[in-house]
Amino acid sequence: MHRHGIGRRSVLAAGAAAAFLRARPAPAADQPALRLLTNWYAQAEHGGFYQARAAGLYARAGVPVSIKMGGPQVNNMQLLLGGQADIMIGSMELALLAAAKNLPVVAIGTSFQKSVTGFMVHKDITAIEQLKGHPILINTEGRSTFWPWLCARYGFSDGQAGVYTYNIQPFVMNPRLAIQTFVTSEPFAATQKDIPFNYLLLSDLGYHTYGNVLLATKDIVARRGDDVTAFLRASAQGWKDYLYADPAAGDREIVLDNPAMSAAQLDYSRAALRRIGALGEKGGVIGTMNDARWAELHDFVVRDNHALDTPTWRAAYTTEFVSKLDMTV
User: Which end of the chain is less congested by CB atoms within 10 angstroms, N or C?
Assistant: First the structure.
């Protein structure tokens, strides 16, 4: 996301969308909003939600939604468990960890069908295997998620791993260095500065996680299941509109929350999300999840992260709500 130091539309099929959005009545004036907590400052990676709110998709679906930004000093899980949010943007790994600890949290859907995380590398590097022995800067979360998998699969060692502080200056200064980045962000900064690079996306390397997974409290799932369904359906339409139609409404909302976000960055990020097929393959259902993908990641976590295999892992997610989604890419 927008965390570095030296900077970071087919037409809407309105008829079908309006049909499902009209299926639920307008919310009562006193109905509390579903409170969405993002995982960073407002940016294109949250654009579908901002688009859905700005374009009135949530309102027409009968579910008011508020959006609160996360950030480097925000503990999203703590806020979710403390009742300060109803839904948060997190990860599959975080959901599995919550299930292992019997926390009352469950993944209800996702934003992207693949992770937007990868490695920015110098132009002489064209394959992940070539990074063996090279210094690689990764963040704290990465150390406990994909890094053990990379070590197990590609023979990397912990001695290679340094701390990434969201500043690409070390990359510029060290021709052997690789950094963990988001395909939507740090590459934009490098492009703006005419810094040559290649990019290796984790999902292309075989790490098949969903990106920006939506985690909800089990209380919200139990009490407001219809609202959760309406939220996910409207969000799917928001994402399709934001990436493949007119994103102006969503962009305005993003900039209101995060004035530092530039139009050039937003355009670059949307193009990157389209290029990698973040919403899925043509004809695929936006926001969906399946059992096979969750089982695959669980196996990674147990085998490569040496986590204990517990029967509670299946409580990490539910497909109850995504089974009702039908908006396609």
Answer: C
Which amino acid is it at 315? A
**Inter-residue contact 147 to 138 (CB < 8 Å):** yes
Determine the Cα–Cα distance for residues 43 and 129; give it in Å rounded to an integer.
Answer: 32
Mean pLDDT over residues 24-34, rounded?
65
Nearest to 221 by CA among 28, 49, 80: 80
> What's the predicted TM-score (pTM) here?
0.89
Degrees to nearest 5, angle at CA 58 with 55 and 61: 120
CB contact at 8 A, 240 and 232: no
Q: What is the CATH number of domain 14-113+209-324?
A: 3.40.190.10
Q: What percent of the chain has pLDDT over 90?
A: 82
Is the pLDDT assigned to residue 26 strictly greater than 50?
no
Q: Which CATH class is domain 117-205?
A: alpha beta
Burial of 257 per CB tally in 10 Å (0-12, 13-18, 19+): middle
Q: Per-residue pLDDT tens for 257-277?
A: 999 999 999 999 999 999 999
276: its two tokens: 């990698």
